[in-house]
Amino acid sequence: MAEDMQAELGADRSLLLVDDDEPFVKRLAKAMEKRGFLPETAESVAAGKLIAQNRPPAYAVVDLRLEDGNGLDVVELLRERRPDCRIVVLTGYGAIATAVAAVKIGAIDYLSKPADANDVMNALLARGETLPAPPENPMSADRVRWEHIQRVYEMCDRNVSETARRLNMHRRTLQRILAKRSPK
């Protein structure tokens, strides 16, 4: 079985994991190593860009929101340095609009956190145009509302005042909503 996995991964099994959640990235690195990858971790945009510049990997998993910036910067650099890199974007905030932007600039897929190692591996190795199975538990109405607010927020270039105006919502109310984690 390990040989089948090695063949599916190819000769270059290098994997870059960029996430500022240290316990998560360490667990994911260990799990991906057991699955045949050769992981290297970075906990910031700066560290991720440095690795992407000097040693662009065959595979990458990049969190969108990092403490020092946006993971999309790492995705763009990876796409420039290694066009064949298979990149999966993780988002802990359910920001579908941003995840779609990531796919447009070169990511092959995006996953909502928490994602387990099997989800990540399946996304990295997915080939072809097969459609994913429908979700077992679709989004709640609160989640759909959250997604809509996030989409408008991203379309307004993350300008709170403009987003509030377009949503016909008080700016302070919008700020409170944006400060919270996404509903289930």
Automatic annotation (TrEMBL):
UniProt function note: Member of the two-component regulatory system RegB/RegA. Involved in transactivating anaerobic expression of the photosynthetic apparatus. It is a transcriptional regulator that is responsible for activating expression of the puf, puh, and puc operons in response to a decrease in oxygen tension.
CDD domains reported in the protein's UniProt record: REC_RegA-like
Pfam families named in the record: Response_reg
Q: Recite the UniProt keywords alphabetically.
A: Activator, DNA-binding, Phosphoprotein, Transcription, Transcription regulation, Two-component regulatory system
The answer to whether keyword Transcription applies is: yes
GO molecular function terms listed in the Swiss-Prot or TrEMBL record: DNA binding
By what name is this protein known? Answer: Photosynthetic apparatus regulatory protein RegA
Q: Give the GO terms filed under biological process for this record.
A: phosphorelay signal transduction system
Response regulatory domain: residues covered:
14-128
User: Which NCBIfam families does the UniProt record give?
Assistant: ActR_PrrA_rreg (NF033791)
UniProt modified residues of type 4-aspartylphosphate: 63
User: Has the keyword Ubl conjugation been applied to this entry?
Assistant: no
